[in-house]
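A quick aside before the break. I want you to see a complete sequence-to-structure record at least once, exactly as it would be stored in a machine-readable document. Don't worry about memorizing anything.
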Amino acid sequence: MPIYSMTGYARVLVRVQDGGQNREQNRENEQMSYTLSVKSVNHRFLDIQMRIPNGLDALIRGHVDLSLSIDRASQQKAGYNRELVAGFIAAFNSAREDFSLQGAPDLNAVLRLPGAMQSDNRGEDDLTALSDSVRQQIGPLLEELKIMRAREGESLAAILNATLDRLTEATNGVAELRPEIEQRFQDRLTQRLLAATGPEFNRQRLLEEVAVIVERSDVAEELARMHTHIGHFRGLLAAGGEVGKKLDFLLQEMNREANTMLSKTGGVGGKGTRMTELGLAMKAEIEKAREQIQNVE
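That is the input. The structure line, written in tokens, reads:
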């Protein structure tokens, strides 16, 4: 199963024969066309929004935007919603009489009311034909969106795998330097403690304390956990599905291990500087991966 990007877009243009049965002869060949589009972008939760014309509201880890726009292929006679306009005028006249006011309804204002203007040939048959057509198209359209999201997901997987390769390389580099850095840290600590305590101090006891401190500064466990996290990350990428949140959690754990390694190996001269460079490189790769993960479902 592939991983899916939360980014995708699909669009279809459809022509529908008007479904009305009681039409004048010169309207028998009228057609209605509509554009149905759907796009998705990254979002923390599922967020679906639809943009459809008035009167069609019954057509029902990303933001999904479904748009339906209608166009008529033939010239149409404009009409108005007589019931709505009549109700407005009746209310206007009633208010004028109740408060003894002067004036007359403004036709321009009336026709700007939502739903006042409408096509005179949109009947129930038209809406039925449109609804049936949209239901037929929505499945293939969403499948097209899914294909695009899968294609984007493949690109994301390739980028993330390349990032993991560099992260693994940096982790292996730290593992190679670890014995030498550990010995250097032990020698440096021993010299400082001997200089501070003098020769009369129990040397064996001193070396034992140094060994304990060096062991606490060892990064072997962090390296082991980093390799485990990388392997788990690769496994989730290969399995696919809805893995975005799991991958983000793993990257948080990786970043924690990198920070711990940097804190334990800081202040060691020589090749310790190289280990610091590798630790910072690990953090940089982790941050790059986190940016890509924000778009994984």
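Two observations worth writing down. Residues 154 and 231 are 19 Å apart (CA to CA). The chain is about 60% helix and 15% strand. We'll return to this after the break.
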